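Table 4 source record.
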Amino acid sequence: MKALVKARPEAGLSYEDVPIPAIGRSDVLIKVLRTGICGTDLHIYSWDPWAQEHVPVPLIIGHEFVGQIVELGVDVEDLEVGDLVSGEGHLVCGRCRNCIAGRRVQCARTKGIGVNHPGAFAEYIALPAMNVWRHLAGIDLDVAAIFDPFGNAVHTALAFPVLGEDVLITGAGPIGIMAAIVARHAGARYTVITDVSDYRLELARSVGLTLALDVSRTRIADAMSELGMREGFDVGLEVSGRASALQEMLANMAHGGKIAMLGLPNEQFGIDWSHLVMNMITIKGIYGREMFETWYWMSVLVQSGVDISPVITHRYAATDYEEAFEAMGIGRCGKVVLTWSEA
C-alpha cells in the first residue's frame, strides 16, 4: 500500500510503498478514505525539536481519518465489514489506575497513533476495535475525517456549562472556531473569539460568532463594553497556547469564572496567581477526547445540525501532500483534508 512515512530524521515525508498492516484478534483493518492534517503532523513534517524528541523513525504519521472496515479480527463482534468509521487516536494501556477506573482519557501510558504508533496517512490502518467509532449514516466524509480535532473542540467547549453564559475563545484556528460553534449551539449568550490573523478571524466571522477580535488592535475589555457586559466572561476556552492569550483571558474573566485550557504552550510563563485566587477562577487542563462520551456528543451534535464544514478550507489528493503541507505552513487555511480513496 501507499503511505506517507517519516522515513528519515529530517524535514519532509516520503510517499512510498509499505506492507498492509496485519491485524490481531481484537483489531480491525480499515481502508482509509480521507485524512485531516493536524498541527502535530506539521511539527513532524518540519522535524522541529518536539518531533525530534517524541517521534520514532521510520513511522507512518497521521491520526485524523475516516474509512471503511474491510477486515475483522476473530474476536470482534460488534462491528461489520463496510462500516464507516473513524478512530480514537490515543491508545491506552488498560492497566493503569485511571484505565481500570474507567478514566481512559487520563491513561498514564498513552500512545499516539501517528506519533509513536503507526498512523493513518496510508491506504490502510489497523486499529484495536475498542478505538473505533462507527459514524451515523449520511455524514459528510470530510467532516468525519476531522472528528479527532472536533472532539478536542467539543471536550473543551463542554468542559463547563455554557448555557446562558458569555464565552471567550482565544485562538481562531479550526479547533477554536469549532469550539465556539459548539458553545453557541449549547446555549452561550455571547461567543467572542480572538486572534491576530486576519484570515482566521474572517473565517470565524463567516460562521456567525458574536465577535471576532484582532487583539493587536482591539482590547477584550472594549469588546465587553460594546456588548454591554459588566462582569467579565463566565467561561474561557484557551486553545492558542500563547502566554499573552491566557494572561488576557484571566484579566477579563468574571468572578468565579472557569477556563478550559487546551492550548499547549511551548515555554513556561507566569500568571497573576493572586488575581486567580481572589477571583476564585478555575483552570482545567484538557487533553484529547473523553473515551467515548465526547465521540457520542460529536455524532449527536452533527445529527442535530451543527455544521463544522466551513472550517475545512483546502482539499488535496494524497499524492499532492507537499502542496497540502505548504498550505498548512503558510497558515492561511482552516483544516486541510487529503483524499486517499473514494467510498
